[in-house]
TrEMBL record, chain A:
Full protein name: Unannotated protein
Chain ranges passing through the membrane: 31-60, 80-113, 133-156, 162-183, 213-234, 283-305
Entry GO CC: membrane
PROSITE patterns: ABC_TM1 (PS50928)
Pfam family, one: BPD_transp_1
Automatic annotation (TrEMBL), chain B:
Protein name, as recorded: Unannotated protein
Single GO cellular component term: plasma membrane
SUPFAM superfamilies listed in its UniProt record: MetI-like
Annotated transmembrane regions: 34-56, 89-110, 131-151, 157-176, 232-252, 272-295
Keywords, comma-separated and alphabetical: Cell membrane, Membrane, Transmembrane, Transmembrane helix, Transport
Length: 313, 303
């Protein structure tokens, strides 16, 4: 195909026209492609079915109200209690710490990249920041436990537990900076430059333009980035499993260890539980809550991104 | 602005603004800019501290025993990560085998063969965006219930690979679609005008033109799979494994899981070993990231 088509003799063109495959072959190929695309839909169905069925039989043994509003989570005890609130509070405390770190830093980085950095420095800074997103979470977990807790935090808070929510939350916050920065920057880049020019023409400075024109104009995209970042923090497993400990505790004190929904699933799931046991089913019940929570947040984020695309593109 | 011989171009608004305000922006603006720059650098500095910390800590064990020896509980000073390295290669090999063809074919379907904004198309699109953000541990639950127990594949290389391939499928599909979308319409029209069928056009023209973009996305997707640990915790990789996998149904461990196991052991030798293994893993991942960026920059075609 690289040869210039003009030089091909007419007879050859005719030959290649006759070589066209039959419609039947095209149809088979289309079927194969459709099947490949269907795998992603089947994955979602598979997830829903595989968490829902054990969850239903879990709820047959543990009343819904005990599960959702109970304050004691001791599934591996002989007379186990299945109140999921300690896991939810652990998840929320650690996510909140991560959010406090990641929202301002992620948004700040995005505004710098989109409004201040020259093309050349953006080409270096952006991939460097994105390298953070490529670091395995187990490595972040190791860093949180060995460095953030045992080198830094222990000097500032001498009474801190070795396994604590603070180190996990801080490191998780740094981990989601690239997610928030990169999506917010996309949203700000989609703001038409006419809006910026108009603002400058009225005499505003670069800071005023960024804060009062660009950020409001890109708000739905920025909120989408925040929501997606929070969803990632809620679903993150390895950092909390390694650095925040495995004790379910109903507390708001970030210097103590706590267990999250994800780290419970990881801890219980890595043991060898028999398929029908209530402990085994509890993995799925917590997994169902986790999937539902992140699913809602992802949908909100997807909707918001679609909205700003419709406005500006 | 750099060429004085052309007709005077309009000055950029920022330049006009700078001239109106004088050469230095007000103090508040400079402080704002500094704060933004600091928020950008905190992430980068953390990354640098992390790399420096594990390299210094792992230095005593960064030698060939790391990859020639097997893990050992009683003799940490001689333990190595060989079974984890071979396990990672087995698992990722099969993951690539499942995820790449499926992902690329699915992307071809969505980009080249389906009605844009059709109902199925939109459903699949939203579904893929959501799957890309589903927590990885949830894929572990799916793998545990479906591959390990329902299909009775057990705690094997193949269970891990199938689970990881579902995990990276959205990334492969999304990046392949972007690469296909960057191929200009003219190429498809030219091919169709010469009498090629839609599939011939897709397979012989569009796909080859998109290969560099696809390769970049695929490398990044596989590097995500290499670093993934959470779903494998549910799929048997935590068992103490001191042998290399012998086949797809064999037991296995992987580098991130081995790091996790060593991190759990509080003995200092194991912390050093974990650091050294982290360096090994990071070198591998950074090399892959670098290759991806290189391919993207080298082959960036201006159509």
């Amino acid at each position: 195909m690289s040869a210039s088509p003009i030089s091909a003799p007419v007879i050859e063109v005719e030959y290649s026209l006759r070589q066209t495959r039959s419609r039947a072959g095209e149809k088979v190929i289309r079927g194969v492609l459709l099947a490949a695309a269907a795998v992603s839909v089947l994955t979602t169905i598979g997830i829903v079915v595989s968490v829902l069925i054990p969850t239903i039989s879990f709820l047959a043994e543990v009343p819904v109200t005990d599960f959702l509003f109970g304050t004691v989570w001791t599934p591996l005890f002989a007379n186990g209690q299945f109140g999921v609130l300690p896991l939810i509070s652990g998840t929320l405390v650690i996510t909140a710490i991560a959010v406090v770190v990641a929202l301002p830093l992620g948004l700040g980085a995005a505004v710098y990249l989109s409004e201040y950095a020259s093309d050349r420095s953006r080409r270096v800074l952006k991939p460097t920041l994105e390298l953070l997103a490529g670091i395995p979470t187990v490595v972040f977990g190791f860093f949180a436990l060995e460095f953030v807790t045992q080198v830094l935090l222990i000097r500032i808070f001498p009474g801190i537990d070795i396994f604590n929510a603070l180190s996990a939350g801080l490191v998780m916050g740094v981990m989601i900076i690239p997610t928030i920065a990169s999506l917010s920057e996309d949203a700000m880049a989609a703001v038409p430059s006419g809006l910026r020019d108009g603002s400058y023409a009225l005499g505003s400075t670069k800071r005023q333009t960024a804060v009062k024109v660009v950020i409001p104009a890109a708000l739905s995209g920025i909120v989408a980035a925040f929501v997606l970042g929070i969803s990632r923090a809620i679903g993150e497993t390895m950092i909390v499993t390694i650095a925040a400990g495995l004790e379910p505790r109903l507390t708001l004190n970030p210097l103590e260890g706590m267990q999250t929904m994800t780290s419970y699933i990881a801890a219980a799931g890595s043991g060898d539980l028999s398929t029908g046991s209530i402990e085994y089913k509890s993995i799925f019940a917590v997994g169902f809550l986790l999937f539902l929570l992140t699913f809602i947040m992802n949908m909100v984020s997807i909707r918001l991104v679609r909205r700003y695309r419709q406005v500006y593109q | 602005m750099s060429a004085p011989d052309t007709a005077a171009p309009l000055a950029a608004p920022s330049q006009v603004q700078a001239e109106l305000l004088g050469s230095r922006p007000p103090l508040r603006d400079r402080a704002f800019r500094l704060a933004l720059f600091i928020s950008l650098t905190i992430g980068v500095v953390t990354l640098a501290v992390l790399i420096a910390y594990v390299t210094i800590k792992g230095w005593p064990r960064l030698n060939s025993t790391l990859w020639t020896n097997m893990p050992s509980i009683r003799r940490p000073e001689r333990a190595g990560a060989q079974s984890a390295i071979t396990g990672t290669l087995w698992v990722i090999g099969f993951t690539a085998l499942f995820a790449l063809p499926t992902g690329i074919l699915a992307a071809l379907h969505l980009e080249e063969f389906s009605k844009p904004n059709g109902r199925f198309q939109r459903l699949v699109e939203v579904n893929i965006q959501n799957l890309a953000a589903v927590p990885s541990i949830v894929y572990g639950i799916l793998g545990l219930a479906f591959f390990a127990r329902a299909l009775a594949l057990g705690q094997s290389v193949i269970t891990a690979s199938l689970t990881l391939s579902l995990l990276i499928l959205p990334i492969v599909i999304i990046s392949t679609r972007e690469a296909l979308r960057a191929v200009p319409r003219n190429i498809r029209d030219g091919s169709l005008a010469l009498g090629a069928t839609e599939w011939q056009t897709a397979y012989r023209q569009t796909l080859p033109a998109a290969i560099p973009g696809i390769a970049t996305g695929v490398i990044l997707a596989l590097s995500r799979a290499i670093g993934e640990a959470a779903p494998l915790l549910l799929l048997g990789a935590v068992t103490f494994i001191t042998f290399n996998p012998t086949g797809p149904l064999s037991g296995y461990t992987t580098l991130p899981i081995q790091i996790f196991n060593w991190t759990k052991d509080s003995r200092e030798e194991f912390q050093i070993l974990a650091s050294a293994t982290i360096v090994l893993l990071l070198v591998l991942l950074l090399a892959m990231n670098f290759a991806a960026i290189l391919i993207r920059n080298r082959t960036q075609k201006r159509w």
